[in-house]
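Continuing the series of single-chain predictions for the mutant panel. This is the parent chain; the variants come on the following pages.
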Amino acid sequence: MLLIAERLAESAMRGESGRSSSLRDGEAVYLLNQSSNTFLSVTAGSSPDDAVLAMAPFSGDLSQQWLRSGGQWLWGANHAFCLLPVDGTNDVGLGDANDASVSWSYDEASRIVVGSDALDVPLEEPRTRVILSPANDDATQKWTIDLVSPEEPEYFINQSSKTCLGVRKGSTPSDAYVGTLHGNGRKELQWFFVGDSWQWGGNRSYCLGPDYDNRTVILEDTNTSTSVWYVDDAQRLRIGEYAIDVPLTAPRTRVGLFKASDNIHQKWWRFSELMASLEGVEPPVYPFPGSDETTYNQEIDRGLVNALSSKTEPLPHPRDVPTFPGTVDLETPRVNRKVTLDLSVLGQNRNFRMTVPKDWQATDLYVAEGDICQIILPETLTADQALQITVRVGAYTDALNPHSSTVENKKYRRMPVVSEVFDVFPGVNEIRSQYGGNLIFMYTEGENFTVDVNVKNVVEAPYFRYGMTSIGDWETIKMRDAPHAVLESDKCVVVVPSSAAQALTDPDQLMARYDEVLAMESYAAGFDETEAPPRGKFWLVNDIQIGAGTAHSGFPVMFSLGSYNIANPAIPYDWVVWHELGHNHQQGSYWCRAYGSESSVNLFSLYIQEQLFDTDRLEDMNGYVTAADKVDGGMTFAEGNVWDKLVFLMEIKHAFPEGWEMFRQLYKTTRALSEDEAHDIAGNHQLQIDHAYKNLSKSAGYDLVLTYDRWGLELSEEAKQEIQQLGLEKAPGDLSHRPPSDRK
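Parent structure:
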């Protein structure tokens, strides 16, 4: 909304004069009394016979809107009626606009007058009455006329998290939790600028306010709010010296109020500005150069605008879905399905100090690009329960950017973002995916429960469940018309293009091999019947372009389709799978990083290679001898390459009969550390070196100090003394895995 005073200032600059001349006929306005700070409203009734005119807090409803038409004020909810004095009284009411001859004016003293009388809000509490009184200079007769802007909401999108400022739960200042939500055009994310305040789209009686004591933001009453917000030149949403901040702590749904800084998590895009910036800009043709940051930024903006745009209109910016992830034929039947969401297993009871699988639940459903899908949660769910559930469309999570190793100095082969996440609430949730993708439900910790939800307007995707789907059924299921297929076992979920799934004739063999490898990874990390591994399933996903390398660890583990078809039954037995899943099992900041992240991870690879094929890659490449010769020549551990550092660890493995058990115990011991101990080790490189040394020495039954000395790997005096006090015999310095006659 635009205050009339601002219009007058503009008029004065153009040499115009007169308040009434700046208000055009047909413009809808709100009439705000400057004394009561409430608005002229029809609070009951809908016609001249029963309408009650009174002052009320702002709601934004049509019942509070008035249109100037000549000398009349037409009622916003029904233009057939207008504001009239009530005969024989000093009250005002509604009358028939066609029969009325009254003429109102807005004078230089900001009064709304008819004849010698002016609209007046008496001082008697509760100050809801509006009357006509002889015109005077009291504030009770002064009115501000606020123009009604088009009802287009604003959205604030955090530039770091790519999520929107909104009310996550609650609906009043007493119970509202203001945080961030994934953009979906819902009223909970909408804000309307009125004066200096941002009114909430869920109920415009409330607006955004600061909570300085708790360093966050809240809802407060619009009519009593004195908050003055502004967006500064650095795109920060400010109030005084403070800015709204999205802290980096996962899951990044909280907002804070901190002193303004230049951090990106304090910077916000405005939806209206993103829309305007894209007007008349043609979409790119893929592939386009990785150096073209302008086009990259426009593609990110297109995705954000599409996500927040009205679902009653076509997507404002069509996307290059045919390139990736692929399209669904318009003739493919859409189905409705009941899906049971299982949150009953939530709750990890410890810190595993590894990349723990997230709580994702796969389905055999696919959301077609551009379709409006309904996710209907029972109304009986609490707000907190609903907030534990998030809908993901598409498992291809890598967001490309100009600094991605696969993009820098190369090309974007597909859109930078190709999947979406949606928050859901009790009741009907309409989502529209601009990319399309497999329907996945994601859960966060909280209450344990199961719930049935209805999913409407989706297509069936190729889906195989190891141990349940027969080969005969698979031959039919794999031909379903969805671009990507899902194969699931007790230990993992594999997402591949449907074309790769259609070529797969023995999915049982594929999934059995993935489960076999994951069981070995788990064992090498020290898990067994005495200590269960994390309960979640590992996800492995094919994408035509990933953020780094040809494969990378994380959740999901990502594989470039051009390099690895993870639906090929040979791939689970490939080093790359052992390596990337090994990264997920590593205890990086507790000891693995200090011994070389890319070296120590291959303990997993070598263990699995030994179990499956009774071979050793280091043997095959003569790595043991080469590294030992380098050490004889003066090379230190720090100077070694990734294979040399791996040799250091494997020399210890081969030198003692405990073998792999030494590293299994190291993993177990690291998980058993107290939080304080783990915190201290994680922040100190020397403590990480010492931690592995002490534990490997104890497991071997020998003090490994001479081996560390030989490799130039410095130990602290405290660590050496701790092992010396155990009275362990010192192992030989040269543990090299080569004939004894060749050892120094």
